[in-house]
Amino acid sequence: MSYTLIIGNKNYSSWSLRPWLVLRAAGIAFDETLIALHSEEFDAEIRSRKRSPNGRVPVLIDGATTVWDSLAICEYLAERHAGLWPDAAAARAHARCACAEMHSGFGAMRQWLPMNVRRRYPLAALRSDVAADVGRVQSLWAEARERFGAGGPYLYGAFSIADAYFAPVVFRFQTYGVAASAIGAQYMATMLAHPAMQQWAADAQAERMVVADEEPETLYGAR
Ligand SMILES: N[C@@H](CCC(=O)N[C@@H](CS)C(=O)NCC(=O)O)C(=O)O
């Protein structure tokens, strides 16, 4: 039995990137089904709830089991494959908190810095609510690196679910030219050099579909 992961456009679908990266980075075999957001197929297969109970992607299908939320998918995989969370209990608890915080928060950053992997649209200034989210992300990164990151270049040393959870943020900071602290910049460079991140970015670059609502001009105006 093998996994099938249903995802949206690689350029835009930040939630899809997370479990895809967990699978890829860990070398777990899976079939990938990409269904473009806002397409007729997305309406028929996903929004109709035919293949996704909540009408959204990502969805992991494992035989008779359907898992339809990015964090639940990561946890499902972590129950079956060793090494996806940090080994040490304190680091694991911190990583889980960071992922939960990302999963349920950072609304301003998500709204005003939507993931758009192939675009470069540096912003001269950030709204104060976005700047607060950006600051919080960077404190989380610094805390993880300083307290738990000694064993490698990722947040908790070795690559873990937490890195996959912040991968879309790395792409966002790159797109909008968000200034990172020294630790943040080094972490971003590490993430952007990861072969699976590079594969996702190349695939996003090759996509032709443009979703106007997700483009920076819609939020900030033409340049
Ligand atoms: N909390 C969900 C969010 C999933 C989500 O919002 N997915 C977006 C794509 S990134 C989606 O399917 N949007 C389509 C729609 O809302 O019609 C998760 O973590 O998986």
List its salient traits.
10 helices, 54% helix, alpha+beta, Glutathione S-transferase Yfyf (Class Pi), Chain A, domain 2, Glutaredoxin, 2 domains
The CATH architecture assignment of the largest domain turns out to be Up-down Bundle
Largest sheet: 4 strands, mixed
The molecules bound to the chains, other than polymers, are: glutathione
Radius of gyration: 17 Å
Overall geometry comes to globular
What level of helicity do the residues show? 40-55%
Strand order of the biggest β-sheet: 2-1-3-4
Beta content: 5-15%
Domains (count): 2
Compact description:
With 223 residues, the chain is of the alpha+beta class.
Description of the structure:
The protein is α+β, with helices and mostly antiparallel strands and 223 residues long. It has 2 domains: 78 residues, Glutaredoxin; 118 residues, Glutathione S-transferase Yfyf (Class Pi), Chain A, domain 2 (Up-down Bundle), CATH 1.20.1050.10. It has a 4-stranded mixed beta sheet. The protein is globular and about 45 Å long.
SSE layout and pairing:
Blueprint: E1 3-7, H1 14-26, E2 30-34, H2 40-47, E3 59-62, E4 65-67, H3 70-80, H4 89-104, H5 107-112, H6 128-148, H7 161-176, H8 182-193, H9 195-206, H10 216-220
Parallel strand pairs: 1-2
Antiparallel strand pairs: 1-3, 3-4
Helix pairs in contact: 1-3, 1-7, 1-9, 4-6, 4-7
Glutathione binds next to helix 1 and helix 3.
